[in-house]
Each structure stands twice: as C-alpha cells, then as structure tokens.
Design a protein that fits this description.
Helix content is 29%, strand content 16%. By secondary structure, it is α/β, with parallel strands linked by helices. The strands form 2 sheets. The chain has a 7-stranded mixed β-sheet with strand order 3-2-1-4-5-7-6, sandwiched between helices. It has a 3-stranded mixed β-sheet with strand order 9-8-10, with no helix packed on it. The longest helix has 17 residues, at 280-296.
Length: 319
C-alpha cells in the first residue's frame, strides 16, 4: 500500500512504515533542516510545503495514497510548551484532518503528544473524520512497550473509511509488550557508561538515569551536567563525577533510528530533530498492527464510499 507522510520531520514515521512493508510515495515538510535530513536518507521526493496554508489538495491526490500518515507539530499541546492550543501550531492538526478528508485515503494515522486528547482542536479534527466516513481507533502508547527503550507517551489516531470505531484496538492491545524495554535491552554495552544525565525540566526531578531502565523521553535539547548539580534522591548513583550526557548519536539510537541514519545540520538542529521525531520502532509497531489488520481482513470487503473532493485551488511545492 502506498503512503504519503505529512509534517514528515526527519522521517521517523516514514522509516517505521517502510520497515513494516509499506511503500512511501512522498513526504511533505516545511522546515529546511528536517528536509535536508529526510532527503539524505530516503529516495522518494520530499516537498517543501507550508501545510498550514493549503487550499488545493490535487497534489496529494496525484500521489494516490492508500494511507496518509503524519505528526502535526505539537508544541502548543506539549508539556514543554505553553499549552495554548490557539497559538497557531495547534491549527495544523485541523489542517491534517482537512487534507485527509479531501484526499480520502483508505487509512490515515495521526501522531501527537498525549495531551492533545484534552484539546478542542482534536475534537474538531475528529468531527471532520467522522463526517468523512472514517471509523476511528485512538490510543495513547508508551513507546517502551512497543520496542523502544524509552518512556515516551504518544497519542495515535488511526482511521479507516467505512470501519467501526475501535477497529484496530484488538491488534494494538495484543501486540504490546508486557515489560518495558530498557536501554541495555536494546543497546547492550554499546553505551560506555552505566549512568547518564538527562537535563530535567525542573530540579524537583532527577537528572541521572541508568541504562538498566527505560530512558526518559528524549527531548529536543541535550545539555551537560551543570556545575553544582545537587544529587536528587531518585538518582541511581551517589558519585556523579563519571556521569555524562548522552551523545547526539546515542540519543538517535534510543529513538531507534538505525546506526547508519545520516544526520545533518548544526548540533542544535540535530538535537531538536531527534527529540521531535517519532521513534522508528514505535511507528513500525503501529504500521505492523495495520498490516495485521489488513491480512486478517483481506478476504472481506472494506466499505470505502466514494465521496467527491471538497477543495480545489492551488498549492505551491518546491524541492
């Protein structure tokens, strides 16, 4: 099945779906550092498009997608942001829904932070999907139960035209691991330290972690241990003199990008790209659930009512 990736970032969703056996036909992104990294790692086209300002959907229709995937930027919903869904980026969730409802792929997958469940933007998007005939499965997944050595809770909304709501729920639940994956489980001794530093959002939280537990959420910043860091009661080691932050490469591996994935740009850009990415194995988990659903239903007709396109004007795409 053919897939296009909206708000593609550096390609975590694309790579996960590709590894699950889907064909990625095209990607769309508007941040040049992300586009440069995406182009260095994929052979299909990635278009430089501002998806917040799209009036014509013919370019997406011409890609003939069976599935549209995407992770609209989540800073307006995130605990790391101001949590004001009306700052502008929250509108991109609705933009994603409008594109899906105009193009009418068989499936769609939308990924975001778990806090989106409390927003009006999500309710608006779900109403659009419902009116377009999509059955919806929504779930919050802990990446550490999906083959990722990291506690990272993310919201997924999966739609299928003509299906009942919760159509994918059985596959998601039965494929979740029973035990959280640790950094050591995934990387073994390839990280040459047992303890590492991840800068906390506040010093009320610990900053030192062991490779024998899941990593905390990889964020878009990577800072050294500050001078005078006071040991937190939750830190798993008393002597922090040998504790170091993870390298950029190590952070990308914990995000389950492959060792040969090419990262470009300055350090700040690379750290932000890695922190904002969808973990590859998490994307692959969702994609595999869809593949399993398709396999189990291959002899059944999935109703996909033909509904005419709703929007027609123009879109400018640049390479």
């Amino acid at each position: 099945m053919r897939v296009i990736d909206l708000f593609a970032g550096c390609g975590g969703l694309s790579l996960g779906f590709s590894k699950a056996g889907f064909e990625i036909g095209a990607a769309f992104e508007n941040w040049l550092p992300a586009i440069n990294v995406y182009r260095a790692n994929f052979h299909h086209p990635v278009y430089n498009v501002d998806l917040s300002n799209v009036d014509d959907y013919s370019a997406f229709v011409e890609c003939c997608p069976d599935i549209i995937i995407g992770g609209p930027p989540c800073q307006d919903f995130s605990s790391a942001g101001k949590r004001d869904e009306n700052n502008g980026r929250g509108d991109l969730t609705v933009s994603f829904a409008k594109i899906v409802c105009a193009v009418r792929p068989q499936f769609f997958v939308m990924e975001n932070v778990d806090r989106i469940v409390k927003t009006e933007k999500l309710r608006t998007a779900k109403k659009l999907f419902f009116d377009a005939g999509y059955g919806l499965t929504e779930t919050i997944l802990d990446a550490s139960l999906c083959g990722v050595p990291q506690i990272r809770k993310r919201f997924f909304l999966v739609g299928l035209r003509g299906a009942e709501d919760r159509f994918l729920e059985h596959y998601v639940m039965k494929n979740l691991n029973k035990k959280q994956m640790t950094v050591y489980d995934y990387l073994g001794n390839s990280i040459d330290t047992e303890f590492y530093y991840r800068h906390p959002r506040s010093y009320a939280r610990r900053g030192v972690f062991s490779i024998h537990e899941p990593s905390p959420t990889i964020r878009g910043v990577n800072r050294p241990i500050p001078k005078g860091y006071k040991k937190h009661k939750g830190d798993p080691v008393n002597d922090i003199s040998q504790v170091r932050p993870l390298t950029t490469k190590e952070r990308s591996l914990i995000q389950t990008f492959p060792d040969d994935f090419v990262w470009l740009g300055c350090k700040t850009e690379m750290e932000q790209l890695i922190g904002n990415a969808v973990p590859v194995k998490l994307a692959m988990f969702v994609a595999n659930c869809i593949q399993e659903y398709i396999k189990d239903h291959k002899n059944q007709t999935i109703k996909t009512p033909k509904i005419p396109l709703l929007y027609h004007t123009s879109i400018k795409m640049t390479f």
